[in-house]
Amino acid sequence: MKTMVAALALCLLYLPVYQASSIDIDKKFEEMExxxxxxxxxxxxxxxxTESQKKDDILxxxxxxxxxxxxxxxxxxxxxxxxxxxxxxxxxxxGLDTHFGPFTAAITVTYKNVFTNIGSAYxxxxxxxxxxxxxxxxxxxxxxxxxxKISGLYLMKNGEQMISMYNDPAGNSLETAANGMTLQLEVGxxxxxxxxxxxxxxxxxxxxxxxxxxxxxxx
Length: 219
What we know:
This protein is an alpha+beta fold. Helix content is 38%, strand content 35%. The protein is built from 1 helix and 13 strands; from the N terminus they run αβββββββββββββ. The longest helix is centred in the N-terminal third of the chain and has 83 residues, at 2-84.
């Protein structure tokens, strides 16, 4: 009996300690559960923020590429407009129905019958072409004459002879000759035709005598 009473007393002595330990454990479980829930929420928020940041980065990259493409298109449009703004071409004939010459000195030929004058660089009143842009140009000319006299022409650039055309006198017939050349010109350079001294050329509505030039490409 005494033994049972002692055991019961011992159990009653340790019961508050057990209950206190159980309460502490439950509290710690609650704290750990709360901390885990908070961690899960933070991880979810971070994941959403990362995904949002990735989308923002992608959008920024696409926007940068779009802006670059727009700039390239605008530059190309400007290049096309600049290129078309530099279109230069002319073609003219002597516009006579008789001989031109002979003269005792060389003279500039004025081709007054203008077919084309894109860019207005050729002046029919003077017969002079003035380069509006720096570039490589092509020029050609043709001439007809009666062979009782010589026929000679120079293609001139700024007062300097570039190429020429010449026909000997031979009998009494009409003959035609032509020549052409590419020239690199600076802005303001002048190109024109000169008739040799004591020579002549002949034209009529068939337009045998022509002077042509155009810009191949700018530099």
